Each structure stands twice: as structure tokens, then as C-alpha cells.
Amino acid sequence: MKKFLLPIAIVLTVLMNTSCSKETVINFEDDSAYELGSIEAEAGADNQVDIEKAILALTNEHRLAMNSNELDFSPAAYEEANNHTDYMISKGKLSHDKFQERAYKISTKVKVKQVAENVARHYDTAQEAFEHWLGSPDHRRSIEGNYTHTAISVKVDKNGKFYYTQLFYR
After folding, report:
1. Please, what is the end-to-end C-alpha distance for the chain in angstroms?
2. Which helix (H) or strand (E) holds 48?
3. What is the set of domains in the chain, with CATH numbers?
4. How far apart are CA 74 and CA 2, in angstroms?
5. Among 43, 81, 85, 52, which Cα is nearest to 167's?
6. Longest distance between any two alpha carbons in the chain, whole Å
7. Distance between CA 26 and CA 72 in Å, rounded?
8. Helix H or strand E segment including 57
9. In sequence order, what are the beta bridge partners of 167?
10. Measured between alpha carbons, how far is 80 from 75 in angstroms, rounded to an integer?
11. CA triplet 71, 74, 78: central angle to 5 degrees?
12. What pLDDT digit, counting tens, does each position of 65-95 carry?
């Protein structure tokens, strides 16, 4: 029995260290919010802007394959995504801390009805991060949701690990 406890403890430790906090979606139409579970990601690519562009392309390719609309890039969401990615790096962990504040800041710049957010870290490629998001029902819901705009921020911490924030709104 003890032979099985160590591998189980290792798996549980890995899972707990690769899970992020809850993701909140803000619905500005009826002022309600609901909690979505979220999954941490892993990172490691060369050019952050190329990764951001690749995730936008992957997002839109996926949406088009579903006969859904492409998402437009949003400078307002990009600013907030960048700020949050910097925040996560400063804390050394994934979070959705102050999500409502980010959603509100976006709403002061553009008209929005709903805002959602995906976060990840430590993925080696855009494809890998995107596939892990698609593997999570809650992240997939954001990617496939009724949104019109998105922005992705990808940044590297001092250890060369990538952090990702993708914001969506309509």
C-alpha cells in the first residue's frame, strides 16, 4: 500500500501546483458574475509577440471551424492583459486577482456586455497553451463564447517561463 502512496502524493502535488485560481466572467447586461474553473498552463517560446499572434490565429481558426465569428484584436483589452500578465509574474503564480477591475477598465474604454479571461503559464508553444485551454471546458467556453474581441499578452519571467493572459469581450 505504501508503494502506491508516494506516486499518488507526487501526482497530487503536481496537479495542485499546475492549477490556477477561478476565472470570473462578468456579464454587464444583468450585472451578474459566475465562477468558472480554470487550469494552469506551461510555457517556453522565443518571441512573445509571435506567440500572441499565433494564439489569436489559433483562436480564430477554431472559431471559424465552428462556423462562429472571428474575434477582432482589442487594444483596450491588450493593455489590461499586459498589466495582468506583469502582475502574475510579480507574484510568481497564476491568478484572476482583480478581474472585475480589469473588466471595468475595459468597459470605460469600449462598450462591453460581457468580459471573460483565460490565464496560463509555462507552456512551450502557442499551440500547446491553446490545446490545453481547449481541453478545459471552462477555457473552451471562453474561446468559443459569444464574444467579438480579444487580446493576448505573453510575457517571460526572470526564469524564462512564459505567462499568458487572454481577455475576451462582446
Report:
1. 53
2. helix 48-65
3. 34-169 (3.40.33.10)
4. 53
5. 81
6. 59
7. 19
8. helix 48-65
9. 117, 151
10. 9
11. 120
12. 999 999 999 999 999 999 999 999 999 999 9
C-alpha–C-alpha distance, residues 161 and 126, integer Å: 13
Sequence-distant (6+) residues with CB within 8 A of 67 are none
Instruction: Write out the three cell numbers for 52.
Output: 500572441
Closest CA to 62 of 135, 120, 121, 112: 135
**Given 3-state DSSP classes, what are the helix, strand and coil percentages for the chain, each rounded to the nearest 5?**
45, 20, 30
Distance, CA of 64 to CA of 56 (rounded, Å): 12
* DSSP annotation of 135: T
The pLDDT tens digits for 3-58 are 444 333 333 333 333 334 334 455 544 433 323 333 233 333 358 999 999 999 99
Integer angstrom CA distances of residue 168 from 2, 16, 21, 46, 145 = 46, 26, 18, 25, 9
